[in-house]
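Section 5.1 Outputs to date
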Amino acid sequence: MSSPEKKLMQMTGGQALVKALEHEGAEVVFGLPGGAILPVYDPIIESPIRHILVRHEQGAGHMAEGYAHATGRPGVAMVTSGPGVTNIVTALCDANMDSVPMVCVSGQVPYPAIGTDAFQECDTTGITMAVTKHNFLVTEAQDIPRVIHEAFHIATTGRPGPVLVDIPKDIVDPNNPRSAMTWYEPSDDDMELPGYRPVTAGDPGAIRAAAGLIAESERPVLYAGGGILKARAADALKELAELADIPVVTTLMARGAFPDSHPLCLGMPGMHGNYAAVTAMQESDLLIALGARFDDRVTGRVDGFAPGAKVIHVDIDAAELGKVRAADVAIRGDCRLVIAELTAALRALGGGGAQPDRRAWRSVISGWQEKYPLVYEQSEPGELLKPQFVMEQLRDLTPDDTIVASGVGQHQMWASQYWTFDHPYTWVNSGGLGTMGFSIPAAIGAKVGMPDRMVWAVDGDGCFQMTAQELVTATVERIPVKVALFNNAYLGMVRQWQEMFYEERYSEVYLSYEVPDYVRWAEAMGCVALRVEAPEEVAPAISKANEIDDRPVVLEFRSEASENVYPMVPAGKTNSEIVVDPSQPDPRRGR
């Protein structure tokens, strides 16, 4: 396992675990100690790793996710056994759905006690098997360096994802002889991962076939998914789009992967995407799916999705190819490498000059953009704020490279619709799992990873009440995130569905405008807090928040409860049945 050249040292398993994290380049760990993981917390005192003490283990997981979203490096969380690890399951599932690189170290009862229903014991590997890319139960202290190295390797290669390492207490406890071990610096040669061989380069024949389809297409669309960002392929995507002059849609997970201000950018497609993006995909003759998985929120009813389109599908995960939509050309590989290979293949065919004349296609799309822009009506005097207006003000009054972390619901859709994302890795959100309460801890993690950047959390009142306690963490740890709290006194997206599809029978969605008092609550957690109720107050409040950089800030925007998110593709309908704002002509009447 080790070679003579490696530096060998005697230490405990707890010391080895901390040293292994250091060896993998971990700069920060988000965690909460407890009995089973306690022996690891003692050597952390001497480690250069920054530990951030969270107020709930779910917060640790989302902070690790936010850190990974913003930096591209794996986030690290550490929790104890039993309820500690069950509390982080939601974050593990969230990271698994959104392909976020993350390593979670969990404490476990001593190895001889496993299976005896010991205090705070649970079947951690069994519980987390379905929500992680891989998990480990380490049984010998000597295996700790290798397993930690393997965990980081698995989390960051191929399709990224969360990896959990479960550590019995006895192999890290300095008072237990099973904890004695010899440290060595693990390398890739030490890994024991039979069968794990991620494919990165695309098949040359498939790439040539894909280039041929592009060269024949008159109405192509580049369908960019979150895999573009995971592969650090934003520049490669832009080069391909400009070379072939093909419009680009960026899914909820890919916002910022292609600049919103670029003339080829159509914005977000899907259930609440803009009309031009949704309809361009629907009417295309070729979809070039790059790091996207044909999610149901993008496709609508699958059998009616883009019926006339051929499909090129590029994904690092072979399981995604053909899972939802059969591809005419399927290419397994790393998006950045495959896009570069595809661009080279197009150049070999004559580059942009060999592409069909697509001016008519661009003209049709331009007509859709002009006829069906995003719209809303500004509030009248005495009325509550329109959330779209607040979102526009936030966008216009913050730096272009501001990192935005969103909760889940109406405010998430408005943020994606109305913010202008011209930089990659500036949009942090929960896409696949749709986890309420994600934004505040994720914003904290993003700010820890990118301390010189402004970070705003966009949250709803329902989401805020789930994880707001992590603002105590932000205050104590001096992490100056800013929170835009949209208080409409409802679970807004659920209320919208009940209005549209349940005959306005509003069941269990009303929260309250008055309870809790968000300003006093935020102040009690050490934040600067302001309540904003009139349009003329919005810009000054945001400007004031932007000037504060020594503590968290919470701005409560009292917003209109009856406001709905449009456009909308109703669940179970095709994208051709998209519903636009009631003030606009119904496009379905022309079909």
